[in-house]
Write a structure and sequence with these properties.
Layout (H helix, E strand, L loop, with lengths): L2 H23 L16 H13 L5 H12 L5 H12 L7 H14 L4 H4 L7
Length: 124
């Protein structure tokens, strides 16, 4: 799927959602928010994602305890779920071809010497 197709799909979904909202409420703008400031800032969200990666199978309640212990901030489970769900949308899923190529690369590099590894640049 090319980027142009993805953009067209996103626009179509937006238009569909706006049309549905207009049919239901007679308007297309969002409802007013509570105005309360967000409970977590960017640093809290980053710590939450890091904790989630460290504790791979932890649920929202366990991550809530971790965040409370680290920051001393009480955060609801639903907030944690929302923050992680939003960040998961940004994750690029690997297809089977990626897995095969990665495994092949590992098998090729398993016997490398330190000199060969010194030419590799690791990034996130």
């Amino acid at each position: 799927v090319c980027q142009g197709d993805v953009r067209r799909i996103a626009v179509a979904l937006l238009i569909s959602r706006l049309a549905s909202r207009h049919r239901a409420t007679g308007r297309v703008y969002d409802s007013p928010r509570s105005g309360a400031p967000p409970v977590t800032d960017h640093n809290h969200d980053q710590n939450l994602r890091t904790s989630d990666l460290r504790h791979g199978l932890a649920n929202a309640t366990q991550l809530q305890a971790c965040l409370t212990n680290m920051k001393g901030t009480k955060v609801y489970r639903q907030t944690i779920h929302n923050r992680l769900h939003r960040s998961m949308k940004q994750v690029i899923l690997l297809i089977s071809r990626h897995h095969r190529e990665y495994l092949q690369w590992i098998q090729d590099c398993v016997s490398w010497k330190m000199q060969q590894w010194s030419t590799v640049l690791f990034t996130d």
